[in-house]
Amino acid sequence: MKSMTTLLLIFSVFTLLSFPTSTDADYLNHTCANTTTFTPNSTFQSNLNRLLSTLSSNANRSTGFYNASVQTPNNAVYGLFLCRGDVVGTDACETCVATATAEAPQRCPVEKEMVIWYDYCMLRYSNEFFFSRITDKPSVYLWNTQNASSITDQNRFKEVLLATVTEVAHQTSNSNFKFATKETNVSGSITLYGFGQCTQDLFSGDCYLCLLVAVTQIPRTSAGGRVLKPSCNLRFEIYPFYSSGPPPPASIREGPKGKSKTPTSKIVAIAVAISVSVLLFVVGYCCITRRARKKYNQAAADEPSGENDITTVESLQFDFATIQAATSNFSDDHRLGKGGFGQVYKGTLSNGQEVAVKRLSRNSCQGTEEFKNEMVLVAKLQHRNLVRLLGFCLEGEEKILVYEYVLNKSLDCFLFDPEKQGQLDWSRRYQIISGIARGIMYLHEDSRLRIIHRDLKASNILLDGDMHPKISDFGMARIFEVDQTQANTNRIVGTYGYMSPEYAMHGQFSVKSDMYSFGVLVLEIINGKKNSHFFQTNAAENLASHAWKLWRDEISLELLDPSLRDSYSRTEVIRCIHIGLLCVQEDPADRPTMQSVVLMLNGYSVNLPLPKEPAFFLQGKVVGNTSMTTLESDINKSSMSVYNGSITELYPR
C-alpha cells in the first residue's frame, strides 16, 4: 500500500512537471478565405454551428485529433482540430479547442473557409472536402526576436538546424500520431529543440512533403521560429518548449535573452515520465491502429460524423433507378465521352451533387463478388490528385461506376489542341507535373495498397476547375503484395508509346514501368506534342530519343513548346526534362522512384544523376543499347490502348 501511495505521488509530480499547467489558449494567427462567403442565419451557418459544437465536445479525444462533417445539399461543411502532441489528454488541449470553436466565427464571421492557430491547437473548417489531403497554403511564418548572430558558431548552428528539422520531418511522417521532437547539441550549453506535427489523417508521404516544404521556409537567421500550415507545422527553439516541463512564460516565448535550464529536482519526474509515456504510447498506438483502418469519405449525411467508414459494400452501392434519373436515362446530351471500358455520362444526384457515371461494357468476365470487393478497395484510394470513386451500381448485367465530376475534362484536350494550349502556361504545366507525381507516389508508396496504374497517359489525367490534375481510369491497374517488386503477364494492357520496353517485350511490370510512362508524359507536357507525333514524322524516332539528342547536344530547351518561349522558368524546364529522361531509361533499375521524383521537383538542392540513353520504338521495334526485338503490334498503334476484357487484375496486398 505504501509503495502504491509513493507511485501515485511520483505520478502526480510527473503530471505537474511534464505537461503545461497553463490552460490559456495562446492565439498565434488565423486566415479567412474571402472568396467564399455565406449569408448570416443561413443553412450553412446552422451546419457550421453544429460542426463546431461537435468538434468542441470531442476535444477530450485521446489522440488529440478529430474531424467531422455536417452535410445537407449544397451546404456541406467539414472541419477538424489538432492539439499539440505534448498536450494531448490535458486541460490545455480541451481549453484550446473550446476557445478556438468560440473565437473562429468571430474572426471569420461570413467566410466559409478558415484556419486558426493557437500555441496548443489548430482548428480548420471549409465548405470543400479536405480530409486526408495535403494543404500547403496559406503559410504563417513566426520567428524568435533573438537573432542567431548571438550564437558564436553560426555555421555550426545552421548546419545543426537543417539536420534537426529534416530528421524531425522524417520521424513525424513515420509516427502513428504524426508528431515528433528532437534535441541536438549545438555547442557547449546550447541545445536546439525541434518539433514537427501533421494532421493525423495525412498519409506518410504527404506529411513528409508538407514538412519538407516547411523546412525550406524556416527562418535560419533567428534563434527560433516556426512555420504554420493547414496540414502541418514545424518549430525550433534554443530552449525546451515541449513535454518535459511547463512551457516558458509568454515573455520567453516571444524571444528569450538567456538560457533555460531544467532543475535537478525534475530529473526523477522526467525518468518516471519516460516510463509512463511508453505505456501511454502503447495504448495510444492500439487506438490509432484501429482508427487508421478507417478512411474519410464525402458521404451524404445530415448528422455530424467523425470517422466515415467506407469498408462495406452497402456504403458504396447505388440503385439503377438513381443512376437512370441522374443521367436522364443515359441521354446522349449527358454523354461526356467513350473509353475502352464503355460510355461516360455526366449526372446530377438528387442532392445536387454532380458526378461522372461510367457504364461499363458487358464483355467483362469478372464475377459479381470480385467486382464488389474491387470497388471497396478502389474507393479507399483518396488523394487530391486521384479521381475519387463515390460508388457503383450492380444490377442484372449492368456494371456502373460513379466518380466525382471533374470540370475541365482531360489533359490531352488542352495540351494537344492548338487553340487551348495557351491556357496551359508553364506555371500550370509545372503544377500538373508535380500533382501527377504526388498522385502516383500515393499509389506506389502511401496508400494501404501498392498499385501499378499501367496506363498513365495524358487522356487519363483529368483537370479540375483550378487546373489541378487528377489521375483517372484504374481499369488496367494491378495491386501488388506488400513485398512484391514486379510481376509478369501474358496479357499486355496499356497504351503503346507509353509502355516501358520490359513490359512491351516481356510482360514485366513494376513501379518502374509506371515511371517510364510518367517520363513520357512529362516530356509531352513540356513539348506540347503527342509521343505518337514523332512516329509519324521524320523528325526523330520518338519523343524520348528526340529529347535525349537535344540533351546530349546541350540544347535541351529547344524541346520546350514554342507557345511558352516568352514566359517560363529556365531552371524548372531543364530540371523537368532531366527528370523525364531519368524516367525513360532502358534499365528499370536506373529509373528513380516516384518518391525521389517528388523530392527532385520540390527541392533544388537535390542533385540529379546523369541520365543514360533511353530505349525507343522504331518501325515496329523496341531498340535498346544492345538488342532489338520485334513487337507483335505495328507501331502505328502508338496511341491505342490495349484491352483484353477485364476491368482490373487485383491481388489483395
UniProtKB/TrEMBL annotation:
The chain crosses the membrane at residues 267-288. Residues 1-25 form the signal peptide. PROSITE patterns: GNK2, PROTEIN_KINASE_ATP, PROTEIN_KINASE_DOM, PROTEIN_KINASE_ST. Residues 330-616 form the Protein kinase domain. It is a single-pass membrane protein. Keywords: ATP-binding, Glycoprotein, Kinase, Membrane, Nucleotide-binding, Phosphoprotein, Receptor, Repeat, Serine/threonine-protein kinase, Signal, Transferase, Transmembrane, Transmembrane helix. It catalyses: L-seryl-[protein] + ATP = O-phospho-L-seryl-[protein] + ADP + H(+); L-threonyl-[protein] + ATP = O-phospho-L-threonyl-[protein] + ADP + H(+). GO terms for biological process: defense response to bacterium. SUPFAM superfamilies: Protein kinase-like (PK-like) (SSF56112). It is found in: Membrane. GO terms for molecular function: ATP binding; protein serine/threonine kinase activity. GO terms for cellular component: plasma membrane. ATP binds at residue 358. The keyword Magnesium does not apply. CDD domains: Gnk2-like, STKc_IRAK. This is Cysteine-rich receptor-like protein kinase 10. It comes from Pyrus ussuriensis x Pyrus communis.
